Amino acid sequence: MLSILEIRRQVEAGVLTPREAVAKALVSSRARNPDLKAFAALADDDGAFPEAGPLAGVAVGVKDVVDTADFPTELGSPAIYGGWRPKADAAIVSRIKRLGGAVIGKTVTTPFAYLDPAETVNPRMPNRTPGGSSAGSAAAVAAGLIPLAVGTQTGGSVIRPASYCGVAAIKPSFRLLPTVGVKVTAWTLDTLGLFAGGVADLAYALQAISGRSMEAPSDPGALRFGVTTMPHAGERSPDSEAALESAAKALAEGGAKVIRVDVPDAFGEADRLQPRIYEFELFASLEWEWSAHRAELPPRLAEALQSGEGVSPDAYDEARAAARRARLASKDLFSSVDILITLSAPGPAPGRETTGEARFNRLFTLLGVPCVNVPGLRASDGAPIGIQVVAPFARDTRALAAAQFLEQRIATLL
Amino acid sequence: MLSILEIRRQVEAGVLTPREAVAKALVSSRARNPDLKAFAALADDDGAFPEAGPLAGVAVGVKDVVDTADFPTELGSPAIYGGWRPKADAAIVSRIKRLGGAVIGKTVTTPFAYLDPAETVNPRMPNRTPGGSSAGSAAAVAAGLIPLAVGTQTGGSVIRPASYCGVAAIKPSFRLLPTVGVKVTAWTLDTLGLFAGGVADLAYALQAISGRSMEAPSDPGALRFGVTTMPHAGERSPDSEAALESAAKALAEGGAKVIRVDVPDAFGEADRLQPRIYEFELFASLEWEWSAHRAELPPRLAEALQSGEGVSPDAYDEARAAARRARLASKDLFSSVDILITLSAPGPAPGRETTGEARFNRLFTLLGVPCVNVPGLRASDGAPIGIQVVAPFARDTRALAAAQFLEQRIATLL
């Protein structure tokens, strides 16, 4: 699969038409999907896609919790939403189409974007989980079927599957991409994200879709990188610790200022209370499903809903106050460093009975700060290990510039 | 129509069954609706409503921008959404049902909750607008058909129609009532609200639906009331100015501390920029309708969308920064008073060619603070004039207590 930037170069040079580029993605997606199970729905024909615009020629997969007028939207729950057809496209789908992008299909999500595994295969490690909940988006890009996919992250559902599948991804600042028409599971957490083969593609796509400049600063190596293992997030695999060390070393060797930092205590407290916020909002968000279709909900989701029903408004408010304290503390932290570098996940992808853990992600989702997964490093057995780049709120451009610099530095190690 | 509190008293005393109470509301709603046009859809039978819970016996109308699995949801736009049937109930609908409330129908909204008038009649002044956009919710309660209705406010769509129709209403703090399943028109502004015959009913219903205590403090008369005509909001009718003076006098005569206050300059600036935020988010929210159904959109909405398409992210960010400054300024203001008292609208209901103006509401929606419309006062021609009670963010209980005190004081004038 060509990168987004290469597709655009060839289209602008007149050596590739948007229709050809999209048709190629559709053919390979159709061929591989029976094994990979990355798409919940795929377009039948390739005649109706746009021919012009900054995303013309770019085939896009959209997570199946995002409303589409042209495809079913089953939320990973055929039992409840089988064949469900929304009336309207979600805001991000309309936007991508207007920019010339070709939405060729819906990518597999875990049920209601929660922790019960989907059947998608990790193209890099077929016996491991692709991660969740944006399993299909990560896998479709990792398999080279499409150059761009849309996912959502409420805990760690963009950065974690990107790490496990070895692709680049960004969870932008909260609300940078409007979630209108995306199934709500937690309204203060749900965030749209993008997957692509590399960081430059992410920057190009995010600039087009958000309408905001994502131009990199002239010297991203001049940024101060704060490295942390996030002790409050719990254990890391030895391979992952080594990967983070390699990344830090590569940055320093590239001339960047690399500082070991401790994260503030308020981070640990907010991280500990994040599930309370998620479960309270999850219960309110899925109260209809809980009332009308309880028996058809998968076990981990049902357990979380049961737990959420028991969270009192006072307990929820207390957790939200802890989140506000952590947001203030992050401002202090980001006065001494420009970027945080940590792991994207506690280790490489675990087995298929799980979707892995969001321990390195959920705090940053709660803070609303931009996070980028930079792929390239691997465990001793070849499993991808992602490095997570985190910037202050609304500094998505800085996050992408730092991630691109890190990506280049990691390339020198390979 | 009995009040919610009276229905509950009679149900608990065993002199009224929930089924009887709901059947009565349904019969009168069916009888009056051909003239009043307050309901876009009404239940066919009354057999399936809940029989137990804190809202049992309470017939509820829900604005037709709120998803319902049992009724069509047409968003005031039969041209685009005619017969549209969502899969799931919105969060607030599921919650009301679980509390025993009987959702007997969908109330008329202006198209997409914007400014183009709906055909609903103002029961108090048939030649005037009922206000918008929650026209049917205000009218159905004002006509005594139902004791409780759900509306939404993005600019002034709860408080304004309540003022014009002479009913009580609350626009709670932003996010107190989850908007999951409510059509998004502006994600930082859209707020669910409630309409009822009086303030005590609002407090009872909001406590049940939010799960939060709304117990009034023992002496609401001890609150400091700051009175303002909100000069930045522009002209007021003489009748309305006189009504505000009467309200202030009644409060003072009741022993409350009444202070004339100037609102901070930051309020004027944020108010001036509010349309920029609304239109930017409106365009992103309705991009599908704009792309796929432009010719079927009504004129004022189409004009706002055209304007919204032209708002740059930088201009939007600038307006959001002004909103943040106004939120900070409101904290200062609320250190010297506990409650703000102002008008709910610039005057009594104008003619039917408009839905009136949100000049006295949109700033408070932008700030996210709780607002209550207290009815009772009238213009010289008998048209209702509402007084608006505003409290700091998350002080919904205080807003309701102050409103109830004002309601009692106004009753002494009548």
TrEMBL record, chains A, B:
It comes from the Bacteria. Pfam families: Amidase (PF01425). One of its GO terms (molecular function) is catalytic activity. InterPro entries: Amidase, Amidase_dom, AS_sf. Belongs to the amidase family. PANTHER family: GLUTAMYL-TRNA(GLN) AMIDOTRANSFERASE SUBUNIT A (PTHR11895:SF151), TRANSAMIDASE (PTHR11895). This is Amidase. It comes from Alsobacter soli.
